[in-house]
Sequence to fold (110 residues):
Amino acid sequence: RRSPEMMGFLRRNWFLLTLVLLVFFNSFDAVSSHYVLSRGAEEFNPIMAWLFSLGPLYFYGFKALLMPVVVYLAWSGRDLLSVRVTTVVVTLAFEALFWYQVYFLLFVVP
Fold:
């Protein structure tokens, strides 16, 4: 059973925890994408493929610069229902990508 204190913490801070998860999933995406791309896989996102072709610094740099902007905008608009819903949907999409990449790394990539 979860304690009432923990449930209260989760209710009060769910949006912040969602943003933390989003940052984690984005970071994992960057590292795992670099790993498989350096072994010959193909990047489906044309912008990220172009950045990766320029070099890992551009690839990681874009990811590193974009995420604080996204988090700032989401946190700034956290009182708007549309921002909260969009943030949750994007985080769930990144979670799906996370599990796909975990499967890919464990069973497909040599």
Summary: The chain has a mean pLDDT of 92.
